[in-house]
From TrEMBL:
Biased composition (Basic residues): 195-212
Pfam families: zf-C4H2
Protein name in UniProt: Uncharacterized protein
Gene Ontology CC terms, in alphabetical order: nucleus
Lineage of source species: Eukaryota, Fungi, Fungi incertae sedis, Mucoromycota, Mucoromycotina
UniProt organism field: Jimgerdemannia flammicorona
Region described as Disordered: spans on this chain: 154-212
Length: 212
């Protein structure tokens, strides 16, 4: 059996309504494609705006961190310079202290002690008492120094009490003075803790003076 296919029609041979229908279908397809592309453009544009905003935030945060880093680095460099200066001062002062200690030891052992023994022997031969040793003289000087400080504290406390008498601040200062005296500030009119600490530090410094 032989089949015959109808001959294909050209655009000119098609009826007018078929050409219009095909044209409308093509327009519809292109319009739908255009809408999809436009929607994709809108979505990508919104995503781009969000990404740009995030990028700006990240860049701003990075710049802030870099500024903080520079500040910290400069601070650390300053601390390092201070440490190096303190180390140099420590080494220099340690050397000076050691040199002074050596000088004091030599003065005491090589000059003072032999001369002191000789003078005491001569004084005993003349019926005189021995001269006080270095420790006794240092104790006497320290006692006089502490007594002078106590007198100055009393004077300062008396002047402050007369100027602030009757004020709440003066009343508080008086109670602090009584409390300080009760805690062992013997004979002192309420010296501060810092002052007592300085006295203790001075007392600890006796051995250096003793060799002088």
């Amino acid at each position: 059996m032989q089949y015959f296919s109808p001959p294909s029609m050209s655009a000119q041979d098609k009826p007018h309504h078929l050409r219009e229908l095909e044209s409308l279908c093509d327009l519809k397809n292109r319009t739908e494609t255009l809408i999809r592309v436009k929607h994709s453009i809108f979505q990508n544009n919104e995503s781009l705006d969000r990404k740009q905003a995030l990028l700006d935030d990240v860049i701003s945060e990075k710049q802030q961190l870099l500024r903080e880093k520079r500040t910290v680095v400069e601070m650390l460099q300053g601390i390092q310079r201070d440490i190096e200066a303190a180390t140099a001062a420590e080494l220099a002062l340690t050397k000076e202290r050691d040199d002074l200690q050596d000088t004091l030891i030599k003065l005491r052992n090589d000059e003072y002690e032999p001369l002191k023994t000789e003078v005491d022997s001569l004084r005993l031969n003349k019926g005189l008492k021995r001269l006080p040793n270095l420790q006794e003289e240092l104790d006497t000087q320290m006692a006089k120094y502490l007594e002078d400080r106590r007198e100055r504290w009393r004077d300062c406390d008396s002047e402050g009490s007369s100027e602030n008498r009757g004020s709440p601040v003066a009343a508080g200062a008086g109670s602090s003075s009584l409390h300080a005296t009760g805690n062992g500030a013997v004979g002192e009119a309420g010296p501060s803790t810092t002052s007592r600490r300085r006295v203790t530090a001075t007392s600890k410094g006796r051995p250096k003076k003793r060799q002088r």
